[in-house]
Amino acid sequence: MATRMANQTMLPSYATIVVQPPPPKPLLLFVTNVKSARTIWVEISINDNVSMLKKYVERKMNIPVADMILIYMGEELKNDVKIKDSKLDRAIQKVSHREEPQFDDCTIHLIDLKDTPEQLREPAQSQV
Predict the structure, then answer these.
(1) If you placed Cys at 71, which of 4, 98, 109, 119 could pair as Cys (CB 3.0 to 4.6 Å)?
(2) Contact predicate 99/92, CB 8 Å
(3) Is the pTM of this model over 0.85?
């Protein structure tokens, strides 16, 4: 018995073991180019921001981040906003409640500025 105890690691009586919750599951999103109808899928952490999402889309669609606008439920997704703080919370809530999100809940529309006629584009912001 003494040999068996010697091989086991004993924790001091004052030690506290903290069990961290598992990281959130990645969110599966579909990004559809409104002109070409080409659709890709992206898995992203809800703790990432929209600019990271745009980088993933850039890799898969070969559209520069500066030329893309992402629209979800009629609103533009802003670069500095975290996914969990954006309007995508609708899809996040369903996933967290172990519900299967509908395709609409996970679809983001991509507008490529190169496909937009010059006269319809907003004027470029002047850099000060």
Answers:
(1) 109
(2) no
(3) no
Alpha-carbon distance 23 to 33, whole Å? 30
Q: Can you read off the two tokens belonging to residue 118?
A: 């010059």
- Residues 75, 95, 93, 26: what is their CA dihedral angle, to the nearest 10 degrees? -60
| Model pLDDT for residues 61-105, shown as the tens digit of each residue | 999 999 999 999 999 999 999 998 998 888 888 877 777 878 888
End-to-end CA distance of the chain: 76
pLDDT single digits (tens) 19-50: 887 776 788 999 999 999 999 999 999 899 99
